[in-house]
Amino acid sequence: MSAPTTERTARPRKSRTRSRNINGRPALVISTLRPHQYDLRPACASLICPDCKTWVPITGVQGRQQKLVPHDTGRAGKDAAVRCQGSNRLITVDVAYETWEQRLQDGGAETAARRPTTVLPKAFSPRTDRTLRARAERTAAGRVADWNAVLGRVGDVDAARKRLPAGDAPLDGPPLPLTTLHPQRPAC
Fold it and tell me: For residues 29 and 136, which has the higher predicted lDDT (pLDDT)?
């Protein structure tokens, strides 16, 4: 008879176990963990296993000996069944429930204070505000009138560009353009 070739999967985890096995590693002291890494509520006392970084229930919270539930490193029913080295590790609960709850609330308030607030738009200077309002109030006829008002000065600048400086033209480089482009605007 040959051995099965299928890979074992992690067993479904029980919420509570009554194993007498004890891990040989030193007891994990709750006060060395951050308040968000453990939960001391009696209904679901648990913590993040330092070895596999998963939430694991604590058995015997109100008894003499508290320890982590035996658990696998992978997800139940999905990954390979590899027992975590932190299974059955003793836990020393040296933090009162009220103290833990207060630390957790203080940490939440501190985190909320570090989060950015709503970004408010920058206030306009009076000059910018006037300019934006004037643009909003302008019409197509007003824009044409503004263009006609500066057309004379544009023509003077174009005429100044057409005048060549006294002396010879530069030998290297492209020739200077002598005509000015006048784009046609569509009628409004």
Answer: 29
- Please indicate, yes or no, whether the overall pTM of this predicted structure exceeds 0.70: no
**What confidence score (pLDDT) does residue 186 get?**
76
Long-range contacts of 95-102 (CB under 8 A, 24+ apart): 95/30, 95/31, 95/40, 97/40, 97/41, 100/35, 100/38, 100/40, 101/40
Read off the pLDDT band of 12 (50, 70, 90). low
In contact, 67 and 90? CB cutoff 8 Å: yes
* Phi-psi label, residue 167: left if phi above 0, alpha if psi -120 to 50, beta otherwise: left
Domain ranges of the chain: 28-114, 126-162
Residues with Cβ within 8 Å of residue 42, at least 6 apart in sequence: 61, 62
Q: Is 53 within 8 Å of 86 (Cβ atoms)?
A: no
For residue 16, pLDDT beyond 60:
no
